[in-house]
Amino acid sequence: MYGYAGVSGGDREMKVSDKEMKDGGIDLESGEMLYPGIGYGENQLRWGFIRKVYGILAAQIVLTTAVSAVTVLYAPINDLLRGNSALLLFLLFIPFVLLWPLFVYQQKHPLNFIFLGLFTASLSVTVGVSCANTEGRLVLEALILTSAVVSALTGYTFWASKKGKDFSFMGPILFTSLFVLILTGFIQMFFPFGSTSVAIYSAMSAIIFSGYIVYDTDNLIKRFTYDEYIWASVNLYLDVLNLFLTILRMLRQGDN
């Protein structure tokens, strides 16, 4: 998980006079105010930015679904990955390598979308491998649960933001928690945990990634600048993907 908070785009706010609003020249119903104190013009620009980010995120999820389905259903690819651990480790390492050029060229079209597509596709292969080794019923359950949790947390964050709540304080807490989570997972590779410890680890993972969905959605509403649409979508994509894989692992453990 790679958290990132953009710089506020408040300096781009468009000023609108009270008289213009009263004269009916502006339809305030065209988009709800995202948070208290935001100007009308800034609000409209921010809504456009949010729609763009969620459009990119939807495209990433569609690509992930397609690549994962091919990995699961096309036997030669599935057998190749299962029988070649070195290739699988290489594919696991690729997304980390692609993050660097993706960050550097995030504002340079079309390189930003090219690297985003490669990044998403490489991660999708690992998702496909996880799904291929899991009963189809559990994959469907994980997909439904992830969709429900993401929808609920996203809706809550937009509602809370409208009421004036701020979640920026969660950044340091989540980063520290994620660092401990990764370190614990690394230790687990050499010193396997018992079933109870694994269950606790999975539950904490789900809580942390759920927290990141709230935090990154709040950043999307208030802090990412308009030219950071690629990085905003990457943050949310990783949040959703990590939550899905965590829920899938929990269901797999429960089924066993």
Automatic annotation (TrEMBL):
Top-level taxon of origin: Eukaryota
Family matches, as Pfam families: Bax1-I (PF01027)
InterPro entries cross-referenced by the UniProt entry: Bax_inhibitor_1-related (IPR006214)
Chief place of localization: membrane
Residues passing through the membrane, by range: 53-74, 86-105, 111-131, 138-159, 171-191, 198-215, 230-251
One GO CC term, this protein: membrane
Localization per Swiss-Prot or TrEMBL: Membrane
UniProt entry keywords in alphabetical sequence: Membrane, Transmembrane, Transmembrane helix
Bilayer topology annotation: Multi-pass membrane protein
Family stated for the protein in its record: Belongs to the BI1 family.
PANTHER family noted in UniProt: BAX INHIBITOR-RELATED, PROTEIN LIFEGUARD 4
Name the record gives this protein: BI1-like protein
